[in-house]
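HOLO CASE FILE
Compound: zinc ion
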Amino acid sequence: MSDARRDWAHKHSTAIIRENQAVFVEDLCVRGLARTRLAKSVHDAGWGMFTRMLEEKAARYGRTFVKVDRFYPSSQICSRCGVRGGPKPLSIREWTCTACDAVHDRDVNAAKNIHAAGRAEWLNACGGAVSLPS
Ligand SMILES: [Zn+2]
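Model generated. Tokens follow.
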């Protein structure tokens, strides 16, 4: 691990924690960043180290940090009605829910689901009665 990579991870994890009251990440997955200019940097820095830093800083700043199970099929579930469609090849960027006809951008829909699942797990941990859609 080079110092430059460590610096990058420190800088960005601090910024994310400062700007967000709650942080939800999909475990071991850079899907949400795959099409942004941060993607390569996150890969270089190491996703594991980056999420560990986020977790530590969230604790230090009193933020909520939730890791969503990596097997949660975030790209298959309709973020509007919760119906789970089939697996979608990565080449499919946009799809229409067969149940409610909502049209989804693949990444935006996945991000909404990760956020919802993270929130559900957080509420569960606090004694709420929220369950993940299956
Ligand atoms: Zn739907």
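CASE NOTES: Residues 78, 80-81, 83, 97, 99-100, 102 surround zinc ion (CB under 6 Å). Residues 106-125 form the longest helix (20 residues).
CLOSED: yes
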